[in-house]
Amino acid sequence: MKLSATNLHALGNVGVPDYDRTAVTPGIVHFGVGGFHRAHQAMYLDRLMSEGKALDWGIVGVGVLPNDQRMAEVMAAQDCLYTLVVKHPDGTLEPRVVGSIVDYLFAPDDPSAVLDRLADPATRIVSLTITEGGYHVNQVTGELDASDPALAADLEPGATPGSVFGFIVEALRRRREAGVPPFTVMSCDNIPGNGHVARKMIAGFARLKDPEIAEFLENDVRFPNCMVDRITPVTTDADRAALAERFGVEDGWPVVCEPFTQWVLEDDFGGMRPPYEDVGVQIVEDVEPYELMKLRLLNASHQALAYLGFLAGYRYAHEVCQDKLFVDFLLGYMDNEGTPTLPPVPGVDLDRYKHQLIERFANPEVRDTLARLCAESSDRIPKWLLPVVREQLAAGREIARSVLVVASWARYAEGVDEQGRPIEVVDRLRDKLVERAQHNREDPLVFISDPDLFGDLGSDERFVAPYKAALRSLHEIGARATLEAL
């Protein structure tokens, strides 16, 4: 049965919204409606609504990129409903239809509709999952990189917004002129200090566009930090088929995820917010210890298993984490390199957390692809792993495993695996990375000599020497034998 509002109560053994969706009104505009947002923030709001709460906090999704057209089509066809399927390690599937998204706007088709929604006083939160690259941060200077064509177009006088930053700044200008309080901007991306970064980058854009709005934004708009965690692999045709065959639901874009979920949120909102704490969200004064724990243990470990695992012939995260050699390597990285850089994390047993990560990665039902984990490395490695390297170097501690991960990225970026098969490198800097990596053998420092990605690490002999040795080993004996030697 096709998923739609009219068919909801005809569905069989699938959880469905038990609240009146016609009573739900918009309160949040979300940029970047993908799998992760729908497995996480939208799910928490759906839980609240099931308790009869937060019915004035419905989500209006917004897509600004050309490839968001398909999401717009699916959302329109399904009345903004979708199925969230939790995949348990024993093979059990737990599906639920989520109803907290009430509308979806495809910005290229109707930018004025997006601006109207953003300017509406009912919109009190604008949330973001726009990926690490969506913040346009120069990785070395930490300042805004305004060279992106979408940003450049929005900076033209009188331009109709086309970028996330353009829409936010123009909407804040309109709200200020109309005497409407500003909305809170809530970044939910995997970036250290994501709220701070969002404020700095959007303010940097505003200074170029409208200095008055930049001052207003920096003084009056709140940008809470948060840490979000739930492994959400790309939905496959097999996932759609399983939902149809086992539960009788035809869903154009369901979401699959692991059972684990965590959201740690700084209580820094300009006005009202949903009572997230009622459904398990941790509301705290300082998010940093939790986000560093996730970024340097979970996210960096994903990078640690992804390139080496792919080069060794694996294609899924669970395959890698059922191999003791790789598990020992991951735990060695977490214990000896990641953990020493962390501050105390209130209420968390780090040893238990690290072993729980291995269990989560090893869930065979999630089938998280290494290709997904290897994508957009130029946005991930500098934020998740290189800070560990720098802190370890500053303290005179070991970096061997982190260095091997960087070398495995360089080897992966050559675009050919150890069996001579092509690797599809997915990265916004793909052409530059592959061009450099293909000269790794004759110039082993070529890959790490890019100051925009590596800063001064490419000239620090404490990093350079083990990096050259690791890269040489990957070329000469391969990933598995390199790990065994380590």
Strand pairing plus helix content: what structural class? alpha/beta
Report the CATH C-level class of the largest domain: Alpha Beta
Looking at the overall shape, the CATH architecture of the largest domain is 3-Layer(aba) Sandwich
Multimeric state? single chain
Architecture overview:
The protein has helices at 35-39, 41-50, 69-77, 111-119, 149-154, 164-178, 194-209, 211-220, 237-247, 288-311, 317-320, 324-338, 350-361, 370-374, 377-384, 386-395, 400-412, 430-437, 451-454, 461-476, 478-485, and strands at 26-31, 58-63, 82-87, 93-98, 101-106, 125-128, 184-187, 226-229, 255-257, 262-266, 282-284. The chain is α/β, with parallel strands linked by helices. The protein has 2 domains: 8-284, NAD(P)-binding Rossmann-like Domain (Rossmann fold, 3-Layer(aba) Sandwich); 288-485, N-(1-d-carboxylethyl)-l-norvaline Dehydrogenase, domain 2, CATH 1.10.1040. Helix 7 runs antiparallel to helix 8 (211-220), helix 10 (288-311) runs antiparallel to helix 12 and helix 10 (288-311) packs across helix 17. The chain is globular. The model has no long low-confidence stretch (mean pLDDT 96).
Brief account:
This protein is α/β, with parallel strands linked by helices.
Write the layout of secondary structure elements.
Elements: E1 26-31, H1 35-39, H2 41-50, E2 58-63, H3 69-77, E3 82-87, E4 93-98, E5 101-106, H4 111-119, E6 125-128, H5 149-154, H6 164-178, E7 184-187, H7 194-209, H8 211-220, E8 226-229, H9 237-247, E9 255-257, E10 262-266, E11 282-284, H10 288-311, H11 317-320, H12 324-338, H13 350-361, H14 370-374, H15 377-384, H16 386-395, H17 400-412, H18 430-437, H19 451-454, H20 461-476, H21 478-485
Parallel strand pairs: 1-2, 1-6, 2-5, 3-9, 6-7, 10-11
Antiparallel strand pairs: 3-4, 8-10
Helix pairs in contact: 4-6, 6-7, 6-8, 7-8, 10-12, 10-13, 10-15, 10-17, 12-13, 17-20, 20-21
